[in-house]
Design brief:
Helix 1 packs antiparallel against helix 6 and helix 4 runs antiparallel to helix 6. The protein has about 230 residues and is an all-alpha fold. Helices cover about 80% and strands about 0% of the residues.
């Protein structure tokens, strides 16, 4: 083989090696860019989820406070039915209780809106992903349960209370009409108060559980975010 041929072969091999090295470098740079892009996307998702959870905890605390006060109000009204006569303050307490005792509307939240992102692998930490999925699953369960309790309580309230109490929802100056002695001895009214307190306590306990779960999940997300800083 001539000297020129050997030079040409060496040159060609060198060119191939340079091309291969260039491709490998380009692939490495692309992989680094994709990894950087994914980390930014994951951080954005986790930051958004953390903010959402913090809002959840605020809403849970508001509902917990509201339901604690409402349960106390309904229990007070239940005791007032034992009296022969109510003064103006007691009448207002009884009215407020009757107006609020059937309201168990759940917090309106689209729980499934993160499903696609999670399914696409936005969270690489399997432990964190499982905690998030568990929280969302339980949130959906509690939301559906409260909706069912709300509908059931409304049915009981609508079918029973209006038969024994003349209701006026629009004007606080117009009093309800009722007979205390009749209410106290009426099993239907007693059941409405009983189920209202029971269902409100169930919702209250569920909000306390959700508050604890949300707080724990926030801590786990913060740990994951600190890893990437």
């Amino acid at each position: 083989m001539s000297l020129d041929a050997l030079k040409y072969i060496r040159y060609a091999i060198g060119e191939v090696i340079l091309v291969v090295i260039g491709i490998l470098i380009a692939l490495q740079v692309n992989n680094l860019n994709e990894e950087r892009k994914f980390k930014i996307e994951q951080k954005t998702f986790l930051d958004g989820l953390k903010n959402e959870l913090e809002l959840d905890t605020i809403n849970f605390r508001v509902r917990i406070d509201m339901y604690e006060k409402r349960i106390a109000l309904i229990q007070e009204a239940r005791i007032l039915m034992l009296k022969k006569k109510l003064d103006d303050t007691q009448k207002k307490v009884f009215r407020d209780a009757v107006l609020k005792m059937y309201r168990l509307t759940p917090i309106n939240k689209n729980i499934n809106r993160h499903d696609n992102k999670i399914s696409d692998g936005i969270i690489q930490n399997d432990e964190l992903k499982n905690i998030i999925l568990d929280y969302l699953s339980k949130s959906k369960f509690y939301q559906d349960l409260q909706s069912a309790l709300n509908n059931k309580l409304k049915d009981i309230y609508t079918s029973k209370v209006s038969n024994y109490i003349g209701l006026n929802f629009d004007d606080e100056d117009i009093p309800f009409t009722y007979d205390l002695a009749s209410l106290n001895n009426n099993i239907d009214i007693q059941n409405v108060f009983f189920f209202s307190i029971l269902f409100h306590n169930t919702a209250l306990n569920n909000y306390n559980k959700q508050l604890e779960l949300a707080s724990q999940l926030i801590e786990e997300i913060e740990k994951e975010l600190n890893k990437s800083d």
